[in-house]
Structures are given as C-alpha cells and as structure tokens.
Amino acid sequence: MTALTELFHRSTPVGAGAPGVSLFTAIATVKTWRERAVQRRALAHLSPEMLRDLGLSPIDAQIEAGKPFWVA
What we know:
- This protein is mostly helical and 72 residues long.
- The chain has one domain.
- It contains 4 helices and no strands.
- It has helices at residues 3-11, 18-44, 48-54, 58-65.
C-alpha cells in the first residue's frame, strides 16, 4: 500500500464513500499530469543520439513533447 493510499484510508471516515474516492482520484490524476509534464520536458531536451538510443526520431520526440500534460 502506498503512503498516499494509506493516508486516504486513515483519513476517510467509514461510510464517507464517494467524496473520499473522488479526492483520491483527483490527487492521482494531478500526480499523473505532473509526471507527464516532467517527462515531456526532459524528452524535449534529449540529444539526437539519446533519442536514437530510445528508438525515437527527433520529429517523434518533438510531437510528444509538444502535447499538453492532460493528453495521454
């Protein structure tokens, strides 16, 4: 169990149901968005040699790095 999940289970009263689940989902979504933004920013700064090692062309990397954080 992750620390976030553990905190959620400890802080949600029994019978609270949907509001706690919605908050947990919102937190998880924001975390995913943040990770995507960081990864895309890093991808935008890789050299052509590093991209080749990853099997990506510079154009593919540019397209991916240009996506907004909320787009998977």
